[in-house]
Amino acid sequence: MIGKCSLFARLKGFIFVRICAVDNLEGMIQGVEGMRRRVIVFLFAILFALTGATAIADTNTSSKIDKKKQELKEINQEIKNTEKQLEEVKEQQSDVAARLKEIEKQLKQKEQELSQLEEELQYTQGELERTRKELEKAIKEAEKQEKLMADRIRAIYMNGSSSYLELLLEAKSINEFLDRMVMVQQLIAFDVEVLDQMKQYRDQVDQKRAELEELESSLQQKKEAVAKQKAEIEQKKKEQSQLLQKLKEEQERYERDLDELEKTSKELEKTIQELLKKLEEERKKKNQSSQKYTGGILTWPVPGFYRITSYFGYRTHPVYGTKRMHTGIDIGSNPGQSIYGQNFVAGADGTVIFAGWYGGYGNCVIIEHGGGITTLYAHGSKILVSAGQQVKRGQPVMKVGSTGVSTGPHAHFEVRKDGVPVNPLPYLGR
């Protein structure tokens, strides 16, 4: 903004230059006519100086607006990039959460397997213990039989008989021989039976013990394998949990960055609005616009499309989800007919004071109609006019679109009185 001292200094310089030019001209002009012309030239010099100073002020303000617009564009691009990164982080979080869920399922399955193997191992160990007891019992029985046999053999030895044959040959009669023959047969059969039982016991016990020991070894190996798998899954769970925590921290950081960027974007929008208001005041001062708004009805912004999807006033923002002031009206598509690409027209004759990207408004056009009335047209897909251009009532200034902060194609229209948004409906006609 050019200060008063600076403005007067430039004005003084302009006047000095013009007076010098007048002095040179005065030497060539004679008489009263020359004096009159000198006065006229002097007045034009002052007027030119004032106009030039105002033009400089306009140029500086426009330059500031352009600079802030560029900053706003860059901030909005950063917002888009941050939102994209935030979405990617959220998708990664979703993937990791899904993997964690699957890992939890695998862990539960391995725990069930381990529990089942533990039960089988305990059962097998119980069988082994019972088999050992059976083996001990069989061994004791065998030892008992061996002792009986030993006692019998010792008795035979003490009686002088060293063998079954001698026992038979010592018979004194045929009847005694036959009796002894029967007895020997019974003894031999008993001995064979005892030996067979002992061998059978030992074989069965040894076989069962070998089978159970093999089963115990197999179950132990399975248990170790499952425990190893469980440990690996738990390690994966730990890694995924750490990754999920890292992603949550990234999400929080991106959300903080996004809040800061949105705050900066709002501040820039506010600054641009203030500069636009200042530029409008400066233009009014130099009387560039001769239109006089008399309070007549503005033409409908999008001919043929009259469905209002959001009215002027407080509402829950469709993107941010917070309660905010909606400073205009939104006009949407007709049933079966999209509003996208339709003509967004000037509400009345006026001068375009802004045409370009305007933060959350996206592609935006602002028209001054005189009498403190301006209209704003936002979210366009294509701008058809430029700043400083004179437009007529009903002239297309933009194509309807969905740029900036928008959930879909629609026409956002505002009416402002002395820079303050007012309800557009009382100003509109069809």
Fill in the CATH topology of the largest domain: Helix Hairpins
Number of helices: 4
Helix % is: 55-70%
How far apart lie the N and C ends? 41 Å
Describe it.
It is a single chain. It contains 4 helices and 13 strands. Residues 1-56 have low confidence and may be disordered. A hairpin with a 2-residue loop joins strand 12 (411-417) and strand 13. The two termini are 41 Å apart. Strands 1, 4, 6, 7, 8, 10, 12 and 13 form an 8-stranded antiparallel beta sheet that branches. Strands 5-11-9 form a 3-stranded antiparallel beta sheet, with no helix packed on it. Strands 2-3 form a two-stranded antiparallel ribbon. The protein is of the alpha+beta class. The chain folds into 2 domains: 96-257, Orthogonal Bundle (Helix Hairpins); 289-430, Glucose Permease (Domain IIA) (Distorted Sandwich). Helices cover 63% and strands 14% of the residues.
